[in-house]
Amino acid sequence: MGIVYLIGFMGSGKSTVGKKLGNVLQLPHVDMDSFIEEQTLRSISTIFSEMGENTFRNYESDVLKKIEHGVVSTGGGIVERRENIEWMKAKGTVIYLRTTFSEITNRLHNDSLRPLWKKSVSERRQLFEHRCDLYESFADYVVDTDNKGTKEIAEEIDRLLNNYI
Ligand SMILES: Nc1ncnc2c1ncn2[C@@H]1O[C@H](COP(=O)(O)OP(=O)(O)O)[C@@H](O)[C@H]1O
Ligand SMILES: O=C(O)C1=C[C@@H](OP(=O)(O)O)[C@@H](O)[C@H](O)C1
Ligand SMILES: [Mg+2]
Question: Is the entire prediction scored with pTM above 0.95?
């Protein structure tokens, strides 16, 4: 199956489910945002505020290309660059954790760690609508996450990848 990439909007559970999926599949797990924070010794918020979104996107594209194995929790904006989409399609299996806007709003509420969530409701929704089309259009599998626990989702992905029901 090569590398397993989890994609989806902020709050869809990529980081949480990725960790569990790594355990289930007994593969190493990399959370791209945590990796960038460890490498730069800066928080994602600080990178955005001090260096700008474009610098963050450069780090993100660089990190994506360094990962050769395992389960990868991407950041919600990985689809903003076509080169990232093409890289993931070529290297592995892409799984979209599909989550409704209202469920994401419940999960993130007034989260302040995600710079792009700290926007007005209409801007959040606009970003959500723009991104959802992208996620859906290039995922190999779509997994709905509303009303499911993270362990249940990891097990569902395990079944999909291993082709049993
Ligand atoms: N299936 C789920 N059901 C309920 N809460 C969830 C689910 N998946 C994630 N969460 C919660 O939503 C928040 C964001 O999850 P996270 O894994 O950081 O998402 P992402 O990495 O996609 O932004 C966390 O508080 C997490 O515990
Ligand atoms: O959607 C985005 O553009 C972003 C999502 C975040 O990751 P999560 O999707 O894990 O929250 C993080 O990479 C950064 O704040 C930008
Ligand atoms: Mg995350």
Answer: yes
Which residue's CA is the closest to the ligand 1 atom numbered 7?
13
Report the C-alpha gap between 62 and 40 in whole angstroms: 13
How far apart CA 134 and CA 89 sit, in angstroms, is 13
- For residue 80, the CA-to-ligand 2 centroid distance in Å is 11
Answer CATH for 3-162 from 1.10.3720.10, 3.90.226.10, 3.40.50.300, 3.10.129.10: 3.40.50.300
Sheet of 29-31, strand order:
29-31, 71-73, 3-7, 92-98, 141-144
Q: Give pLDDT tens digits along the chain (165 positions).
A: 589 999 999 999 999 999 999 999 999 999 999 999 999 999 999 999 999 999 999 999 999 999 999 999 999 999 999 999 999 999 999 999 999 999 999 999 989 999 999 999 999 999 999 999 999 999 999 999 999 999 999 999 999 999 764
ipTM of this complex: 0.99
Domain boundaries, the chain: 3-162
Residue nearest to atom 11 of ligand 2 (CA): 10
SS3 state of residue 33: helix
Report residues whose beta carbon is within 6 angstroms of any ligand 2 atom. 10, 14-15, 33, 44, 75-77, 114-116
